[in-house]
Amino acid sequence: MIEALLNFDFMRYSLLSGMLIGFLAPLIGAFIVVRRLSLIADALSHVTLGGISFGMFVLTIFPALTFLNPMWFGILFAIVGALLIENLRSMYSNYQEIAIPIIMSAGIALSAIFISLSDGFNQEIVGLLFGSISAVTQSDLLTIIVIVIIAVAFILIFYKELFILSFDEEYSKVIGIPKWIQFVFIIIVAMVISASMRVVGILLVSALITLPVAIAMRFTKGFKQLIITSIVIGECSVVGGLILSFYMNISPGGVIVVLLVLLLAITMVYQRLKLRSNKGAVIDGNK
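^ Metal ABC transporter permease, sequence as received from the core. Prediction below:
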């Protein structure tokens, strides 16, 4: 692994990108999960795939535009999808959750159309679906760095407002938190999902956003503690998944998610055993 990092640029790009995504995805995920919008990551990931496949289709028609990264089209589509979700949530105020499957369906449909138009499934599409170590380029890494800077700066500046929005959206309206903060946050979520797809894969990116938070929720109490613990779990799973996938020669996305699922299962089993032992101790004490 160390030799590969020294000799191959794509390995360094993948590891650095993975560490940045392992930090950023759980950070954003903490706010998303608390707002009960976990499925938004799935919807935007499918919209992102539609954008990337559209970019590939454009490049097949205009080969002179090879300097364009299809990832940029994915980010653009994801941002538009995120804004549409927010608009639909306001239109269907009593059934806000319906906005997510509407946009997800549109994303899947666009993906199917543009993948077919750009000569169907190829190795690059498969890498985008499930993640690939060799798929991360220098351009992708630079894009991810820019997104990380934007996202972290926004969260640091508007942490208080995002905290209130996450826990009580109605109260945020009462105290006059500007609606544009919510729109900008959802755009950042779209950008993070687009950035994560190279490492984790579009079909699995939502797991990296939600699973570290789900694990951290089992044993943390405060929101800041939840964020920090989620980030540590996300980093460990991404780095561990990239290392294992390198030696096993398989897609990293699946390995990363399996590690997270195993960790969640271990946490739940441990807590159940601990609860049983505590109950047993109480019964023995009463005797």
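Residues 57 and 119 are 9 Å apart (CA to CA).
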